[in-house]
Amino acid sequence: MVIVVGYAPGPPGEAALRRGAEEARLRGARLVVVNSSRGDALVDRRFAQAEDLEQVERTLAAAGVQWSLHQPVRGREASEEIVRAAHEARADLIVIGLRHRSPVGKLLMGSTAQSVLLDAECPVLAVKGER
Amino acid sequence: MDLGPLMEGFATAATPMNLLYATIGVILGTAVGVLPGIGPAMTVALLLPVTYSLPPTSALIMFAGVYYGGMYGGSTTSILLNTPGESSSVVTAIEGNLMAKRGRAAQALATAAIGSFVAGTIGTALLVACAPIVTKFAVSMGAPDYFAVMLLALLAVSAVLGSSRLRGFCSLGLGLAIGLIGLDRVSGQPRLTFGQAELADGIDIVVVAVAIFALGEALWVAAHLRRKAAQIIPVGQPWMGREDWKRSWKPWLRGTAYGFPFGALPAGGAEIPTFLSYITEKRLSKHRDEFGKGAIEGVAGPEAANNASAAGTLVPMLSLGLPTNATAAIMLAALTGFGIQPGPLLFQKEPQLVWGLIASLFIGNALLLLLNLPLAPAWAKLLQIPRPYLYAGILFFASLGAYAVNLQSFDLVLLLVFGLVGFMMRRFGLPILPLIIGVIIGPRIERQLRTALSVAGGDVSTLWSEPLAVGIYVIIAVLLLWPLLVRLLRRNPRRPRFKDA
Amino acid sequence: MTFLRGRAELGVAAFLALVGVVVLVDGLGLPTVSAAADPVGTRPMPLVVGTMLLVCAVFLAVDVVRGGRGEVEGGEDVDLDHPSDWRTVGLLLVAFVANIVLIDRLGFVISGAILFWGSCFALGSRHLVRDPLISVALSLGTFYGFYSGLGIHLPAGVLQGVL
């Protein structure tokens, strides 16, 4: 059993990670953590660096689940990378975090969650970040 | 030293309009300095068409602001991202980024900004001192001397810079050919115009510069866009403790001493003095073990060096009309576009322009310190702009600029053609600078040759009749024969050993 | 044909030779008028430059045949490990040519916006609402900026009268 978690540094990503770890523990599944970047900008704050990854390791070690990390930088949107990873791993569940976006914000900036929900082949669990 | 003209220059530079342009220039300069891939040379080229409707002094003040600003901005990216914003900031990244990783980013940024200010101010003061001297000397130069000096500049840029002299000369040849296009000034004969009326005036340097720098670069990056996603090291306000000040001030001065002369030499550049400064600081430092882990001297010296070299570049540019790097070349092209003849008579004919420019450099340096010291982390946010927008913007402004020159779409076709040439040159390793210098200096060197021979009534020996000219020819010969000399010297069996300092 | 593989730089040599020949031929066509005021005349410079180009072309060809290669320009934004992405370059050129063709007919605002948006698209940005908005804002802004700030009247084209 495979669960894919879409991760980015910040409360939504961390909430998704924790919930994903919990689900994996419950079902005896392994986690595939996806943290991607388009690589368009030189600095991308949503791309996990060393300190973020240490935090990820700690969280997942505490949960005691099997996990692997993928950080593709291929010029594709995060939602596309998550759905792709789920397809390749034949995932049973995708876990993503939700950021609050106003309708205008969604129009201008896009919504990763929305795209994942619409394109995924398996069930999607959307988790709110801690305020 | 008569400071009267300089004071008048301050009066010119301190007018609200010129202050505004200086501010715009330094802001733009810092921004493009921070962003890798875009530099002051390209920015000045893109700004050229905009400036034709501005008074020349204001335009030059803005360009100089961009130039100096680029040197300031490059260090921010080097320190926070380990990616040099400008090629002159490569060395800064070595110790600067290590300092940042150890939590000393604030000190690194502070020493870079303050060192740049110190070096920029001292460098500009040296400019004030040296330029009139060089000018006085230059006025006594005759056409044969000019011919020789320009020849030196052309050859130095082609033969010294870059990995392949041969390709440097290829590039130079192309540049000279482009410079030929148009009606010959003396005789009115059309050359390389192929019957096209639009080419009668020659190809506007703006179009060539923008095409080769901006469009060629954008197309080249498009073909090889590197996808990278890093994070800048978070930092608060830059500041330095007493110990840091003590350790920085001598490297600042030494860096300035390295940078200024190299900037003034043709093909000197800003990279070599920063490297020399780094080695020197490493050798002289009492904290030698810190090098490789984040030593503040390794940031202070090189950053001072690159700013001082920017000031140094202005000496030959203003007093002789000779560009020693791409940005200076384009600024000279701007002068020509305004109908102003660069050269030693510039100080006499356009004192307001020159001294206003120099005075605004002092003001610009101060502005840059104010902009960069507290705001460096904010500038780093620019790095979050996705590259597609940046390069689309370059294409947009390049087209806009080329079109605005004459409001005819023929110039856009030329832009495209030369943009493809620029692309080809980057693909095949032909250096860009010799081409630009060739376009700008080619017509001028021809004019000097013809004047020299016309004055001498056709007697070719006039070219080597002046002692200065002869001296320069000797230098040229050494320059060209250098690889041969090196090979001969290497046959010496006792080779010096280089220890790691 | 394998001899030519990887020797694309010979094309550069050919190009240089071509330019050299053109310059020479054009120069030779110039009249050899020497006035006393101008003993050198208009011919020497083109002849020198043309010859220089031909010589360089020959040397370059020789260098390439012997395996020499120009150093491909690197840079922070450039990733040289992969072959050239011709698709992106091609799309950019399309956007560029579109601007050239349309600027006088449809006006700068439209053609400039097409250029900007086309370039964004070619470089991979796929924000289908945000990009066109930015493009239009940019071209409108520069249109008015050039008009009022610099007094340069960019063509309004189809939107003449609206703007």
Fraction of residues in helix of chain A? 40-55%
* Share in helix of chain B: over 70%
Intertermini distance of chain B: 42 Å
Tally of helical runs of chain B: 19
Keywords:
heterotrimer; B: 501 residues; mainly alpha; two-stranded antiparallel sheet; 19 helices; 2 strands; 71% helix; C: 163 residues; 2 domains; 5 helices; 61% helix
How would you characterize this protein structure?
The complex is a heterotrimer of chains A (131), B (501) and C (163). Chain A is 44% helix and 19% strand. In chain A, strands 3-2-1-4-5 form a five-stranded parallel sheet, sandwiched between helices. Chain A has a single domain (2-128), classed as HUPs (Rossmann fold, 3-Layer(aba) Sandwich), CATH 3.40.50.620. Chain A is an alpha/beta fold and 131 residues long. Chain A is built from five helices and five strands, in the order βαβαβαβααβ. The model of chain A has no long low-confidence stretch (mean pLDDT 88). Chain B has one domain. Chain B has 19 helices and two strands. Chain C is mainly α and 163 residues long. In chain C, 61% of the residues lie in helices and 0% in strands. Chain C is built from five helices and no strands. In chain C, helix 1 runs antiparallel to helix 2 (44-65), helix 3 (86-106) packs antiparallel against helix 4 and helix 4 (108-122) packs across helix 5 (130-150). The chains are: A alpha/beta (131), B mainly alpha (501), C mainly alpha (163). At the B-C interface, helix 8, helix 9, helix 16, helix 17 and helix 18 of B face helix 1, helix 2, helix 3, helix 4 and helix 5 of C.
Short description:
The complex is a heterotrimer of chains A (131), B (501) and C (163). Chain A has 131 residues and is an alpha/beta fold.
Fold topology:
The complex is a heterotrimer of chains A (131), B (501) and C (163).
Chain A lengths: L1 E5 L4 H17 L2 E5 L15 H14 L3 E4 L7 H12 L3 E6 L4 H7 L2 H8 L4 E5 L3
Parallel strand pairs in A: 1-2, 1-4, 2-3, 4-5
Chain B lengths: L3 H10 L2 H19 L5 H12 L4 H26 L8 H12 L3 H35 L3 H17 L5 H16 L1 E2 L6 E2 L13 H19 L18 H23 L6 H14 L12 H23 L6 H12 L7 H5 L1 H30 L6 H20 L3 H18 L5 H23 L11 H24 L11
Antiparallel strand pairs in B: 1-2
Helix pairs in contact in B: 1-15, 2-4, 2-15, 3-4, 3-9, 3-13, 3-16, 4-5, 4-6, 4-12, 4-13, 4-15, 5-6, 5-12, 6-10, 6-12, 6-15, 7-8, 7-18, 7-19, 8-18, 9-16, 9-17, 10-11, 10-12, 11-12, 13-18, 16-17
Chain C lengths: L8 H20 L15 H22 L20 H21 L1 H15 L7 H21 L13
